[in-house]
Amino acid sequence: MNIDPRGWKVLVHASTWFAPFIVPILVYAFIRDREVRSISIQAFVFHLAMSILISISIFFSIILIGIPFLLFFGLVGFIVPLIGILYAIRDMPFHYPLLGSIVEK
Predict the structure, then answer these.
(1) 50, 81 contact by CB (below 8 A)
(2) What does residue 30 show for φ and ψ, rounded to 5 degrees?
(3) CA 41 to CA 57: how far, in whole Å?
(4) 73 with 53: CB under 8 angstroms?
(5) What is the pTM of this model?
(6) Rounded CA gap, 14 and 2, in Å?
(7) Rounded distance, CA 83 to CA 99, Å?
(8) Residue range 58-89, pLDDT digits in tens
(9) Among 99, 48, 41, 102, which residue's Cα sits nearest to residue 77?
């Protein structure tokens, strides 16, 4: 089965809403396209970081200081994958914030 790399990139970005850890790992394991693999690693690390940051924010929401962070990280976790999907559909290069330069090295 030969699917356009854009489809794989869209799937990896969209996985944030249904399988944020499993899909990037599976795509990385089975797809040989270099750009798709790079996006898979970035998406996995992004999802992991967002999960940790949101968990910490939930914990600190008990003392009210975490509520703004929870809102911010929740929005970032929602908006960044949407931007990635739009870039993938247009077949434009996309790198997750702070992660793209680390993964490319």
Answers:
(1) no
(2) -110, -15
(3) 24
(4) yes
(5) 0.81
(6) 20
(7) 15
(8) 888 877 787 888 899 989 999 999 999 999 99
(9) 48
Q: How far is CA 83 from the centre of its chain?
A: 10
DSSP state of 16: G
Extract the tokens encoding 59: 């914990």
Amino acid 51 reads: S
Distance CA 91, CA 77 (A): 22
Q: Would you tell me how many other CB atoms lie within 10 Å of the CB of residue 39?
A: 31
pLDDT digits (tens, 9 = 90+) for 24-50: 999 999 998 999 999 999 999 999 999
* CA–CA dist 12, 88 (Å, integer): 10
- H runs (alpha helix) in the chain: 5-14, 22-30, 34-60, 66-89, 100-104
As a whole number of angstroms, the distance between CA 63 and CA 88 comes to: 40
Q: Give the whole-angstrom CA distance, residue 81 versus residue 71.
A: 16
Tell me the C-alpha distance between 1 and 4, whole Å. Answer: 10
Domain spans in the chain, listed from the N-terminal domain onward: 5-91
